[in-house]
Write a structure and sequence with these properties.
With about 250 residues, the chain is of the alpha+beta class. The chain has 10 helices and 9 strands. The protein has one domain. This is Protein clustered with O-phosphoseryl-tRNA(Cys) synthetase.
Length: about 250
């Protein structure tokens, strides 16, 4: 049950746009509480040495649980969070996703070429170079349903029928009449378009990608859409002001 004080209740207009599950919050954590007994936190400069730090901290805190690399893909984690689960991860199991989210510096160009989705190595290289990449310094990524969020997040991801996605685009244009620009190529949809681009550009519109549709299983009629924290608050305020699609 969602109380009036829950984050879920702060976004009723956005939440009701989704017909299955709930919006998903993605937060880039810069520190993590690692032990109730010692009451300590670990900070992170995000210098790509997360695994070494994990080993060092686990050794110094005994059996305290520390965020690990997930064996699920990021898009799978988002779908699980949509249905109520929550995760705190220091990596995930998709190589392009690791590259996009800043967990790895290894280009997915070879992976893309071997996938058969691009004509030749140059096209695959161009695709890899065009991927949005997260520049923010962070330690871990928290993925959780809106109802479990404590009130702040970096990106809100929704899965919508086209008409509902249209309403978000309309709400975005409400104040200044500006067009929404769609930047996508059918690759790195959830991690790139809906998370990194949304964080950077305030909104990320996407038709999905082969990987996320295959592995995470959202419906063919659904389109994923990401909003930054500030944009989500703006859209929430405006949605109720818009005329209904069919009055």
């Amino acid at each position: 049950m969602h109380t009036d004080q829950s984050p879920f209740s702060k976004y009723p207009e956005l939440s009701r746009l989704m017909e299955t599950g709930e919006p998903v919050c993605v937060t880039f954590e810069t520190e993590h509480e690692i032990g109730r007994k010692v009451g300590s936190k670990v900070g992170c400069e995000a210098e790509k040495s997360i695994e070494g730090k994990n080993e060092e901290i686990i050794a110094s805190t005994g059996d305290e649980k520390f965020p690990e690399k997930s064996h699920f893909l990021f898009c799978e984690l988002v779908q699980k969070a949509r249905m109520g689960e929550a995760f705190l991860i220091s990596g995930q199991s998709c190589s392009p996703g690791d590259y996009v989210l800043g967990f790895s510096e290894k280009s997915p160009a070879t992976y893309y070429l071997n996938s058969g989705r691009y004509k030749d190595s140059q096209a695959a290289e161009n695709a890899a170079l065009s991927l949005p990449r997260l520049k923010k310094k962070f330690c871990f990524i928290r993925v959780e349903p809106l109802s479990l969020n404590t009130g702040s997040f970096d990106v809100l991801i929704l899965f919508l029928k086209p008409e509902k996605a249209m309403r978000i685009v309309q709400a975005s244009a409400y104040s200044e009449g500006k067009r929404a620009v769609m930047d996508t190529m059918g690759a790195a949809s959830i991690c790139g378009d809906c998370t990194v681009l949304a964080y950077r550009e305030s909104m990320g519109l996407s038709f999905g990608c082969k990987g996320s549709r295959k592995h995470s299983g959202y419906a063919d009629f659904e389109v994923p859409l990401g909003l930054s924290f500030e944009k989500a608050s703006e859209i929430e305020r405006i949605l109720s002001k818009l005329p209904e699609t069919r009055e």
